[in-house]
Amino acid sequence: MKIEENYSIKDINSLRINQLAKYFCSIETVEQFLEAIEFSKLKNLPILFIGEGSNIVFTKDYDGLVIKNNILGKIEHDERIVEIFSGENWHKFVDWSLSNERYGLENLALIPGTVGASPIQNIGAYGKEVSAFIKEVKSINTLTAEERIFSKEECNFGYRSSVFQNKKEYFITSVVFETHLEPCIDISYVSLEEFFRSSPKDIENLKPKDVFDGVSSLRKIILPDHNIEFNVGSFFKNLILEEGDFRNLTKIINVPYYEANSKYKVPSGYLIEAAGWKGNGMKNVKVSEQHALVITTNGNLDGNEIVRFADSIIDDIYDKFKVKLEIEPTLI
Ligand SMILES: Cc1cc2nc3c(=O)[nH]c(=O)nc-3n(C[C@H](O)[C@H](O)[C@H](O)COP(=O)(O)OP(=O)(O)OC[C@H]3O[C@@H](n4cnc5c(N)ncnc54)[C@H](O)[C@@H]3O)c2cc1C
After folding, report:
1. Model confidence band, residue 303 (pLDDT cutoffs 50, 70, 90)
2. Residue 114 C-alpha to ligand 1 middle, in angstroms?
3. Topology agreement, domain 4-69 and domain 72-222
4. How far, in Å, from the CA of 12 to the mean position of ligand 1?
5. Looking at the predicted structure, is the pLDDT value of residue 38 above 90?
6. Catalytic residue at 262?
7. Which of 61, 72, 230, 323 is deepest in the core (most CB within 10 A)?
8. Which atom from ligand 1 is nearest to the alpha carbon of 170?
9. Is residue 251 packed enough to be buried (19+ CB in 10 Å), middle (13-18) or exposed (0-12)?
10. Mean pLDDT, residues 21-50
């Protein structure tokens, strides 16, 4: 395993932010991971795990060891349970599961990133979250080098959240998934249903592969291509408001919402668009013309510029609507 010094992380983060990692290595096995941990202990360095860098914002150089995860492989425990090593690409896993008659993940097609990062913020799209399919998460505690297996309950999954966001010492080595034996189509998410209603498909007889293809097509239509307009997907979480805050917001603006467990989920993109940000910004960074939740860059900026830009949106939304947006990706 090679450890490089003063490594540019530009090509390993989807915003193409050009900062340096003091040390960098890429690992393909758990043994290499343990070696990397030893190195960090010897030099007394903080460590940062990175998968495909599609949900991470470097605001400055990283004065420690960045470990890029390339641990690949899968173990089929039985026809429902499969263990996927954490460096595998998420979308390829969804595709594979469908081809192997393991159903349910179709709505989560084409989300960038690794399998190992999927539990971190409990990735979700089109009415589904990965937590619905996770049985357990296997990890190594970097402080003790011991394995710890988190049950689904211990993962404490919520909307774009999990226990791992506050337990950064755990490196996820594999995720054990439990999928369905039979197709279980769910296109109840409004924009997905509208998409299929306006397509030539017979909506009553959709197959999982139709949903996989439909979700993939829809994502290509509504989201900018992150290989051309660099981005991390949604830069802000949607708002989850208590009733009082929701009522106050509706006195200022009529918003679409979704009610669950006496809380109100409001699309933050709606407010950002209403405030006039969609398609607007500065030379190196702006709000996407296609999707108001997405901030895009031209790859010529330093990490601080994007955070300053995001902060100006947060302040403006607060001034106009008295609600506080929360940044979704990990800030380093
Ligand atoms: C165009 C685009 C669309 C997107 N759409 C969606 C969407 O629909 N829904 C959604 O939920 N997300 C979406 N995202 C965000 C992103 O795809 C997910 O968060 C994904 O899980 C990130 O995976 P990654 O491997 O790139 O993680 P990274 O960006 O590399 O890391 C993210 C965080 O996880 C930590 N981490 C990574 N691997 C490990 C590990 N093995 N063990 C412990 N910690 C780890 C990192 O330290 C960091 O804190 C989108 C991003 C883009 C660019």
Report:
1. confident
2. 7
3. no
4. 12
5. yes
6. no
7. 230
8. 43
9. exposed
10. 97
CATH topology of domain 4-69: 3.30.43
Answer yes or no: is pLDDT of 104 > 90.
Answer: yes
Domain limits of the chain? 4-69, 72-222, 239-331
pLDDT digit string, tens, across residues 138-193:
999 999 999 999 999 999 999 999 999 999 999 999 999 999 999 999 999 989 99
Instruction: Measure the CA–CA gap between 153 and 275, rounded to whole angstroms.
Output: 39
Residue 301 predicted with pLDDT over 90: no
Topology, domain 72-222: 3.30.465
Tokens encoding 148: 């710890």
- Which tokens sit at 90? 């998420």
Tell which residue, 287, 331, 271, 326, has the closest CA to residue 159. 326
Q: What amino acid occupies position 35?
A: E
- In CATH, what class is 239-331? alpha beta
Could you say which of 52, 106, 136, 328 is catalytic? 328
Q: Give the number of the atom of ligand 1 that is nearest the alpha carbon of residue 330.
A: 49
Q: How far is the CA of 111 from the centre of ligand 1 (A)?
A: 9
Residue 261 token pair = 């467990």
160 annotated active-site: yes
Residue tagged active-site, from 160, 162, 229, 288: 160
Lowest mean pLDDT among 25-29, 129-133, 149-153, 303-307: 303-307
User: Ligand 1 centre from 235 Cα, in Å?
Assistant: 12
* Residue 247 falls in the annotated catalytic set: no
Task: Give the per-residue SS3 of 264-308.
Answer: EEECHHHHHHHCCCCCCECCCEEECCCCCCEEEECCCCCHHHHHH
The pLDDT of residue 302 is: 83
At 315, the pLDDT band (50, 70, 90 cuts) reads very high
Residue 282 to residue 305: CA distance in whole angstroms: 10
Residues 229-267: tens digit of each pLDDT: 999 999 999 999 999 999 999 999 999 998 888 899 999
